[in-house]
Amino acid sequence: MADLGGRVGSRRAEPPVRVTVVTMLPDRRLLLVHAHPDDESIGTGSTMAHYAATGAHVTLVTCTLGEEGEIHVPALAQLAAAEADQLGGYRIAELAEACAALGVTDHRFLGGAGRYRDSGMMGLATNDHPRAFWQADLDEAAGHLVEILREVRPQVLITYDPNGFYGHPDHIQAHRVAMRAVELAAAEGCAPAKVYWTAMPISVLEAGMTHFAESSDNPFAGIRDIADLPFGTPDAQIAARIDATDQHTAKEAAMRAHATQIPASSWLYSIAGNFGGEFMGVEFYTLAVGEKGPGAGPYGWEDDLFAGLSDETASDRRPVAAAGSR
Fold it and tell me: Cross-referenced InterPro entries, in alphabetical order (predicted)?
């Protein structure tokens, strides 16, 4: 080897030097806790895209790989849990594509990819799998989330209500873990100032039922009364309405990235075609922790999840150290 001045060729190999790169996160930081890949896009995709586009730091924490999901791509049927059981790994790639569509660059799996397994629908034998998220130790799982809260220090956190929006065990457990993590983080002084739960106003559901009443692709088929649905929040209890209609195409692209879970013929795309941004771009929340900020309309709905936060809280820039090697 040529002599390069420092006689590189004659020196013994040394371990790589660890380098710590310190970056500053933006003033506004939003963290979302979801159960499976695709939940983020369907329920909060426009909100995520909106805040990412306006310069906020958006962190997505997904609790499982979604191993028990149905597969709507026939060519991938062999990935199912009852066969090769490789759907979870495939969905990691789908989630990465969805996050890219939403402009979200900070995504984590709770405890690391595969630490917790999709529990399947309530009452199935899969609930009892030893790695099922439904069986997770609450404080242990919350501890993984607290580590992220310490690092990112989000002012706002989004997760599900106590029923997991519609009763799925992993959604319920995600709620429990997120709220326990907030409690633990509060004791350390690093809890978010506001916690929101995803919601759907009764008025929006009623409008949907009316629209689809004569449709052959009616997602409300068999439902005669709004009260029969496992979700739906009185309008007066809604705290925030995020109008991100300019991001509805990003949300739709993110949903299409989850092709194994959302078939191209889904009613979601049908209604998106009819209503576009009005359907895809508007998302609603109730406020579980923190003080409601200024709002508008008959119920004073906020139009910004950071509404009411003090300048000091909203501008608390966070240095983040990322270790690498060279």
Answer: GlcNAc_PI_deacetylase-related, LmbE-like_dom_sf, Mycothiol_biosynthesis_MshB
Rounded to a whole number of angstroms, the CA Rg of the chain reads 22
Number of neighbours of residue 290 by Cβ within 10 angstroms: 19
Burial of 235 (0-12, 13-18, 19+ CB in 10 A): middle
3-state secondary structure of 51: helix
Nearest to 126 by CA among 96, 87, 161: 87
Model pLDDT for residues 31-70, shown as the tens digit of each residue: 999 999 999 999 999 999 999 999 999 999 999 999 999 9
Q: Which residues are annotated as a binding site?
A: 36, 39, 171
Strand partners, 242: 283
Which residues sit in the known binding site for Zn(2+)?
Answer: 36, 39, 171
Structure confidence by residue, pLDDT tens digits, 89-120: 999 999 999 999 999 999 999 999 999 999 99
Give me the CATH code for the 18-325 domain, please.
Answer: 3.40.50.10320
Residue ranges per structural domain of the chain: 18-325
